[in-house]
Amino acid sequence: MLAIIDHRSPPEAIENLKKITSDVLLFGSENITYNSISGHPDIFIFQDKNNIIIAPNSPDLLINFLEKHKINFRKGEKPVGNELDNSVQYNCVLTDKYFFHKKDKTDKIVLENNIDKKFINLPQAYTRCSMINLSDNIILHSDKGIKKALDKESIENFYFSPEEIKIKDHKNGFFGGTCGIFGKRIFFNGNIDKHKDGKELRIFLSTLKYEIISLHDDYLYDGGGIFFISEK
What we know:
Elements: E1 2-6, H1 11-20, E2 23-27, H2 41-44, E3 45-47, E4 52-54, H3 60-68, E5 74-75, E6 93-94, E7 98-101, H4 108-112, E8 118-121, H5 127-130, E9 131-135, E10 138-141, H6 144-152, E11 156-159, E12 179-182, E13 185-188, H7 198-207, E14 211-214, E15 227-229
Parallel strand pairs: 1-2, 4-5, 7-8, 10-11, 13-14
Antiparallel strand pairs: 1-15, 3-4, 6-7, 9-10, 12-13
């Protein structure tokens, strides 16, 4: 498998990821969006089980990485910018049944590719930053507004406080940006046990038979998620 991770992640996380993947892209961008999210793959990439859609102004290193490994991808319509409204359009979450994002914030190409899904309107436009899905009906997240929306839809969810999640230039990060999933393994950019909600989350994930992998032993780091891609 291949992996994409913020180049500013702790060196230990990067080295441990290299040990279990065939190639790792250390993602970064310059002069496209603001610094705190400039290395976050979830700002530039929308990924589901069968598709990868990237921002048309994605850095060359991302395009070269995908082409090098013969990974099919499409370019979206709207470029990423340096404001909230133009930095969220690919930051969505998809399951077999649902499409999660904030209404009117999604790139047109992403939406057209998922017209068969039920759109769940969330108050948080940085959706993938905030949450990650284990299945259609189980979501992990760090946003109380998202929790309210998921509860309304009777979607099981686990709230993980954003307190003490590290991120560049801000006090706290988002939970979704700290992790990535491949099969039944969930990889964390940090150690969940250092967090007040870590023990409860570990029990929750173990009950669902997920293997928890901490890529380093410090506090969780929000680097815009860890993206895994299967090689052909």
